[in-house]
Each structure stands twice: as structure tokens, then as C-alpha cells.
Amino acid sequence: MKRTCMLSLLGIAGFLTSVSAQVRTEFLLEKGWKFTREDNPESVQPAFDDSQWQSVTVPHDWAIYGPFSSQNDKQHVAISQDGQKEAMEHAGRTGGLPFVGVGWYRTTLDIPQFTSGKKAFILFDGAMSHAQVYINGKKVGYWPYGYNSFWFDITPYIQAGQSNTLAVRLENMPESSRWYPGAGLYRNVHVVVTEDAYIPIWGTYITTPQVNDKFARVRVETKVNLPEQADPSQYRIKTILCKPDGSRLPEKMQPLTDIVYNKGVMVQEFIVEDPELWSPEHPTLYTAVSNIYKGEDQLKDEYTTRFGIRSIEIIPNKGFFLNGQRTVFKGVCNHHDLGPLGAAVNDAAIRRQIRMLKDMGCNAIRTSHNMPAPELVRACDEMGIMLMAESFDEWDKAKCANGYHTVFDEWAEKDLTNLIHHYRNNPSVVMWCIGNEVPTQWDEGGCKTARFLQDICHREDPTRPVTQGMDAPDAVVNNNFAAVMDVPGFNYRPFRYQTNYAKLPQQVILGSETASTVSSRGVYKFPVERKAMAVYDDHQSSSYDVEHCSWSNLPEDDFIQHEDLPYCMGEFVWTGFDYLGEPTPYYTNWPSHSSLFGIIDLAGIPKDRYYLYRSHWNKDEKTLHILPHWNWEGREGEITPVFVYTNYPSAELFINGKSQGKRTKDLSVEIDSSYTEAAQKSFERQKRYRLMWMDTKYEPGTVKVVAYDENGKAVDEAEIHTAGKPHHIVLTADRNQLQADGKDLSFINVKIVDKDGNFCPNETRQIKFKVKGAGTFRAVANGNSVSLESFQEPQMKLFSGQLTAIVQSAEEAGTITFEASAPGVKSAKLTLKAE
Ligand code: GAL
């Protein structure tokens, strides 16, 4: 019989709930927490009566329940990065939600597996923020940075065979963030119990120093902690590698004799023949199972690490190479919040985001501006997305009065080390990013702090390049700040790429942050003109994708660089998804409280821009998308331009059967001549990537586009129609089959159409929801950055005709019925299954 790794795969260091092997137990603390916003120091005491506190399940974001208010974390500041000279009021900068202040969590820790002589650990994937952890009234530890994962050895604090009290105090300062950070135990909390000889948390480090088609050399470093006075030669390690199909490769068993000479670390090397290489297209994963034995056969620990076999390389003048192939980053920056779910981590929500991004052709995410959740990293490993894992938005100098600079000196090294130890086995992580637009970039000598941080990355993981996002292109070249980095990452100002390339030693340029184009889904402004920092009475931005910030640009201003300059490594667009906070350009204009930068809105509904990126990035699927919508009552006879986002080279447009002419992408447009004021005004660069009919006039009816291939043959067509009277609701779920685990989510798109099924793009009707059966209503969002409606009430107004309702499975299998109704239109029902 073929020996497989299936058993071990179950206990993967991925911390599945309640997985217990004989020698190592790992479980999550999800249910049974008590929570309060009252700050009472007595809360640490085991005898304290918390019965009046709220019962919650972790992950939990206390602030996402609202209510919204302009008074929540109102900041009176000048955002110097945005060019503001004088302080002004920023009401929605951090999302207008009540995250500032103190919150306490308490739960009972029952750990029957913990007996005398064993070890116990607590691991927080992230706690927002300034976590103080107590067990049985005693302080276990403190970790200030809310985004990082951290763990403590709790062996001395817990009593075997008894209930123990875990209490966590969190505190978020005002003016500590530039976006919505979330609040509370918003990521998972794990308990790990081991024997006295064990592999510590994040104790393995697997690298692949040589990779080619025929073989890969795999190096496994395993840290082993033995009891004091133990003789290492009495212990052995057996490491088994498992292939993606679960079959085993030859194992290695060796005594631990030498670890005393190597800081407790055992090094083993393997040759894997015909390796299956990890890439975004083929995200294949191997597993290493490490067993520690005492004497001949007393199993002491079993620890599982997932890894990938892949090579990464930066080649001067050529860019980034994955497995020997030039790979251009088609990336997005994302903040960690999940829209209406807030910061509370959820696997289904993350995987949905990744599915959408991959369909767009995206191959990379930058976890701006902080450590990602393990769920995101795991999903990227499995689904095939490269990650640029970031640590800080601030170093030693302030962007926000109470930001990370207040703890930088004491914590930066510890924070960076934890990030790297946590994720250095994950093949999706291809680069570390040590900072974002840190004010230190302006300083003479700031390069020393950059080098200090980069050196930590090199020390803890010499296999990955290190970058940071810099937005002062001249200063950082003049003061060596950019020159010390493995990869110079520039935020915006692509017009400086060529000059900086000429001066810098690395001979590559990364677009670490690009575009910051702003748009509101389904909202179009006339006349269609390129504008910086345009503001309107409705607090929205135009979905013609022609508006940006004063420091930023349109998507094509980046496309052209990364296509035409061989040393450009690709880009990370600001942002993939809209996020809570930073409603730029509506800084002072409450109720604006969420971003307009997203390619996809806060409800997870694609904006038009999604199809522009898809047409450029996704070469495998055809894109043929028409904008704007065609319901312009009152604009009859007025100029209403039509854009088509497509990867076909040309197309002809018809309005009510009348040809409006044929357009072909103008591939002769080049970088240098296409950024003058006049060229920007006449959309020169856009002509290379979009098809535009600038003079079309609105008349109700049908807009049809016929696409032609390279040979001029008509090969595809699409059309949109002026919708008639709103008639019925249409529901579409992203997934109809859920896991009955009490956590899985279905995202249901809700829209209104006319009697013939034509989408009604101007509908703002309020929709009400009912969920029955084996699930509950979880949240709702419509992507409108000025809506102050609650994310948790089962009702919301449509925004530009659509919204997204989220249904959560229960723990029992069964059917879930979701019903949506609104006055004046036929309601709709949808059935989901939970198994
Ligand atoms: C950048 C910054 C981002 C975000 C963005 C908006 O300067 O790195 O965090 O603020 O601007 O355009």
C-alpha cells in the first residue's frame, strides 16, 4: 500500500479547529467570550463577575456595528503626504466608526490536554491594539502593534486540570491610523499544547536553494526545544516530505546531537526529483512533517509545515523572475478590512476577493500597510497569488500623532521578526516590504534606518528581496534612501521612473503603489474630462475612470511604463477593493467615510475599472464591457461618450442600429510624447488601451458593440439597453453551497430589473431581507461611500441599482432561504444549501 501523508495533513500547522494529535494539540478560542467597552482593572481577576458583559464570538470587530458618527476619531491635521499645508478637519478619515478606546475580552481556558510536564502557548493572529494579556489575574505579556501575530508561553500561568481565566485588554488611541483599523480580537486566538520536547511556534524554516525542472534541493531547518539538562543525542528528528498529491518522499531520521552547536536548530537537506513548481497558475504545495522522538520510539512532537518549491530572482534590467520566467506584477494593494464585515477575519470573504482578483488577471497583492492575516496568506498559497508582505506605515517619525512611531524604537525589530518567522515558509510571499511613504525618507541619514530594517529581513530570511514604497522620488534618490534597498519601490509619479532608473544602482523599478484613480460604481460625470481632485455635490467620482488625485494618475499612465520599460517589474494598484476610511478627495465632507480608490467597491461589486484592468491583465478570457449605463432620462440629444473596455483590438459601436464608427487601439502611442498637458487632455494614452467614442449622443434604446479581431473579422458582440419601469428583484449568490460550520458566507448580489430583465441602473429603493433555515443574515453593503446605513440591519438602499447581502451558515446542515423585497417591485427568493 502506498504510504500517504493524509493523517499529518489534517494537523497542518494551519491550526484547524480542535485538531488533536496525540502529542500536540491545537485549537481556536472562538466561542464563549465575554466583552465590554468598560475599562475596569478588576476585569483581570478570575472571580470578577462578567455575566453582564456581551457574549461574543472571536474573530470580533467591536467597532463595525457602529453607529457612524463624524465625531468618531475626528482628526484635525494637515496630511502632508497629500500636499496639505494647513490643518483641517477630517471626519471620515478612519471610517467614522467607534474603534477608539478600551475593550476587554474574557474567556475560560479549559485545557484538558495540559498535564504536568507539558507546555502550553497562546497565539494571537492579531489583536487591535496594545494588547495586555492576563491569565488567572497575572500579566502574561503585552504586544502593542495591532496587526502583528504574537505568542506567549503560558505554561507557568495555567493550572492543570482546572478552569483558567484569560482576560485581554485592548486600547486604540485616537489619531493612531490613516484608515479604519478595526478593533478588538479581530483575528483568531490559538492555544497550542505540546510535550516537553517540541518544535516551537513558527519553528521550521524551509527553503529551496536550488530549483530546476529536474530536481530541487529542499533545506529544512527545524528548531527543537528540549527540556533543560536533556541530552540531545537521546532525541531524534524524522522529517518526511509529502508531495502535492499526498504521497511520501523518502524520509530522514537523524539524532539531534548537533543542535547544541547550532542554536537548537537541526538542518536537513532533501533532493526532490521532478518537482512540481509553485506559481500563480499552478499553486502546488508540498508538506514537511517533522517528528521528534525520545529514545527509540517515544513520539514527542509532530509538526506540519506547508511549503512550495519555486525560485525567485531579480535580474537587473529585466525585472522579477519566478521559476526562471520573467513575471510582471499585476498587483493590487489592499487594506485588511472586509467592507461590511469590518476587520473581523473571514476565510470565505477573503477567498471571494481572491477569486474576483484572479478573474481580473491579477497575480499579486500588497498587504498595505501591515501584516496580513494568516487566512489571506494561506488562501494565496492555495489559490495562486503572489504576496508582498508589508510591515509598517510609520517608522520613527509620525504620520499620525499616536501612530507606530510611539513604539518603533522598542518594537520594530520584534515586529519584523515575527512577520518573517510567521510567513517565511509560504511560497506566495515573494517579497518583504518594510515601509510605506515613511517620513524618514526625506532625511539625510534616513537610509540607515532603511538598512537596519532590511538587514533584519536578510538575517531572518535571506531568500526574499526587500522593498518599500517611496513617494518622494527625488529626495530618496539624492539621499541614498532608495539606493540601499534590494528593490526600489516607487509610489506614484511614474514619470520619474526613467530618471530614477538612470541614477539608481539596482537597474529595476517597482511600481509599489500606482494609479489612485477614483470612481464610484455606476456614477458618471459630464463633460468627460481628465481631472485631479474633482469634487461634486453628491460626494462621488466619475466611473468614466478619468479622475485621480493630485499626486496620482489614470491606469494607463502605469500600463505604458510596465509594458514598454524592460526594467519595470510591474505594479500594485491602489486599491483592489474599496476600504473603510480615506474618502479622498472628500477629506472634510462628512458623511464620506470610505474610499473611492477601489477597482471593486466596498460591497465587492466590480466598478467599470475592473474591466479595464481585466482587458489588459487577463489574456486568457475575453473582455467586452460597455460604459456608461444607458438610462439618461433628460440627457436626450446631449453628448454622452461611450467607452468600451476590451482585449479585442477594435470594435464598432451602434446606437439603435446606427453606426457610430469603428475604433482601434492606437498602439503607436509611446511613453515620452503622451504625457504633455495636451496629450493628457485628449486621452492619448487611453487611446492605446480603451476604445472611446467621445461624441455619441444619448437617445434611449440599445447600445451595441461589435468586436473585431486582428484580421478585421467580427468575432464578438455585446449590448446594453435602456431599462423600462422597475419590475422585479434579481438575486445571484457567489456560492450556493456552504459549509455548515457557522462561519461560511454566501455573498448575494441584489439588483432590480425591468420586465424584460434589463438592469435598472438608477434604482435606490430600499430592500429588506429575511433569512430562514440553516443560516443567518450577516451583513449588507451597497458600496456608497456616503451611506450611513448600518451594515448589520437586514435592509439597505440600493446604490446605482445594486447591493450585496451576506448570509452566514449555521452549524447544522440544511437549506437556507434568502428573501429580498421592496415596495413596488416583485420580491425574490433564493435557496442555498449548507452541508
Ligand atoms: C498613498 C498611501 C496610501 C493611500 C494612498 C491614496 O500615498 O500610501 O496609504 O493613502 O496614497 O492615494
Task: Describe the 3D structure.
- Residues 30-174 form the Glycosyl hydrolases family 2 sugar binding domain.
- This protein is mainly β and 835 residues long.
- The protein folds into 5 domains: 24-194, Galactose-binding domain-like (Jelly Rolls, Sandwich); 199-307, Immunoglobulins (Immunoglobulin-like), CATH 2.60.40.10; 329-621, Glycosidases (TIM Barrel); 625-721, Immunoglobulin-like (Sandwich); 728-834, Sandwich (Immunoglobulin-like), CATH 2.60.40.10.
- It contains 11 helices and 49 strands.
- The strands form 12 sheets. An 8-stranded parallel beta barrel has the order 24-25-26-27-28-29-30-33, surrounded by 5 helices. A 6-stranded antiparallel β-sheet has the order 4-3-7-12-9-10, with no helix packed on it. A 5-stranded antiparallel β-sheet has the order 1-2-13-8-11, with no helix packed on it.
- Strand 1 (19-20) and strand 2 form a beta hairpin.
- The chain is globular.
- The chain starts with 5 loop residues before the first helix and ends with a strand.
At CATH level 2, the architecture of the largest domain is Alpha-Beta Barrel
Low-confidence stretches: 7-21
Strand residues, percent: 25-35%
Number of strands: 49
| N→C terminal distance | 32 Å
Radius of gyration: 27 Å
Helical proportion, percent range: 10-25%
Instruction: Please report the first level of CATH classification, the CATH class of the largest domain.
Output: Alpha Beta
Give the overall form.
Answer: globular
Instruction: Determine the structural class based on helices, strands and strand pairing.
Output: mainly beta
* Number of contiguous helices: 11
**Count of all domains:** 5
**Ions and ligands:** beta-D-galactopyranose
**CATH topology-level name of the largest domain:** TIM Barrel
Largest sheet: 8 strands, parallel, barrel
**Name of the CATH superfamily of the largest domain:** Glycosidases
Please tell me the overall pLDDT. Answer: 96
User: Biggest sheet, strands in spatial order?
Assistant: 24-25-26-27-28-29-30-33
